[in-house]
Design a protein that fits this description.
By secondary structure, the chain is α+β, with helices and mostly antiparallel strands. About 20% of the residues lie in helices and about 40% in strands.
Amino acid sequence: MRNSLKISQVLLLNTAFLIGGSALFGEENAGAPASYDAIAAAPDNHRVVFENEKVRVLEVTIKSGEKEPFHMHPMPSVMTIITGAKLRITEASLEDGKIVIGKTIEVGKDNFQPPPLWMPPQGLHSAENIGSAEFHAYRIELKGEDEP
């Protein structure tokens, strides 16, 4: 029974991120300025640990009680969560250069470590750590041929 609960939690988290990728974080921000890239907009939470012409690897940390600035991830990626936390993720859009708040979902739980997650490109969003553990992950962004 314990294993089935863990599997269902993994499926729930994967589903939340995948739904978030396509529904919460859609294409409406495709023309957003580069200043909303995760490194530029949320440098305290995203650090480049490796980059070449094919991938960019980000270390992502969000302390308990911390909320990231709004940012986006324009490239598809694989996220490996080292230490999970309960997160409140809020999507947004840009209208006339101003951030307009959209839907919010809650995902994960403290010290949760799901298998690697496929992440489609994510539009403008912010994650707030509403758990008691620090969120720590690595995000491997896959650069397309038209990416810098």
